[in-house]
Amino acid sequence: MSETAAIPVSKRDLRTIDIVGLVLVGLCLVALVAKPEFIAGVFDAMLNKAFPIIVKVFLTGKVGVAIIISVLIGRILERLGFTDALMRIFLPVTRMIGVNTAVLVPSVYNILGDINAAGRIAGPILVKAGATRDEQKMAICTMVQSQQSFSTFMFCLVALTAINARVFVVVLLSVFAPLVVVPLLMRFTLWRDAKAVPLEEMPRFTPETGFLPTIFGAAREGAELLFLLIIPAVGVIFALIGALEYVGVWKPMESGLTSMLSALSIHPDTGIVSILASPTLATAQLKDIAATLPPNLVIGSVMLAASGFPLSVIFGQIPAIWSDATELNHREAMGAAVIGAVMRVLTAGAVATLLTPLLV
What we know:
The structure is a single chain. By secondary structure, this protein is an all-alpha fold. Helix content is 75%, strand content 0%. It has helices spanning 16-34, 36-59, 62-79, 82-97, 105-112, 115-128, 133-143, 150-162, 167-176, 178-187, 211-246, 250-263, 268-276, 279-289, 295-305, 311-325, 330-359. α3 (62-79) packs antiparallel against α11 and α6 packs antiparallel against α7.
């Protein structure tokens, strides 16, 4: 008998992902032989789609600077006791709903500043307040119901004034009502692991860091948020859109989106801009043409713009920021954001279709 015993070799099973990889290798080889310009074209389309957004909007445009300043303002407010004050103000409402008061904090920071800064600042507050995973999802879903920049809010006011709408009532429905309605609805449907926490059992959220370290630390944190999380997330989303456009898939999807918005009494042109590009840009366009449009289209567009769109935020920035700042993973954060976005689209359509006679 041989001194070296034969070692049986186990056969590795072929998994689904292995099959996918083999198919991709085969397709790439076929493309290189039959149509090499296709691979180059897809890459070029992805580059051309992502480049103007990353460079002109975030690196050299005002949006990137606005994100850094929003984090700076948020941290200063937090240092001045803003978060602890919010806890006291919202405690009666959240006690009635039966959720942790910290659930509403991201929405308030979003209304006052920026949706990216809201996640960066309010995410750790939720964890510190002992919010459950369900309550963290609830916070994202609620946050997506409010506009993601103050400039969007101001443009909405101009558009509503142009059609002589009851501005206060529209703002109440679009901005403040979701703070109560969404957590209440989610509390008894999707995310039931929630409970009200007495103020006495919550920690204090005002840091004791000096003011100068707070200011410079916040500026650095804003830069990290922009360059390490937001820009990569935006790059991925717009690169994928570029690839879909090149292969001819995106255009039918865009046409279907236009039809859906029209059916929901939302102005399709500005609605698409809100969903795909920027609610601020959409409302800037809307305010110039609002007087020429039917009131229901204006109100529907305002309701849609006062949200966490565009899609790059829903599918890119929120999962990236919240998975880093809370206990949620990318999939959980994205799922909550998608649910909130769908709710917002349906709410905008319902308000525009059913309530416009009462609002104008």
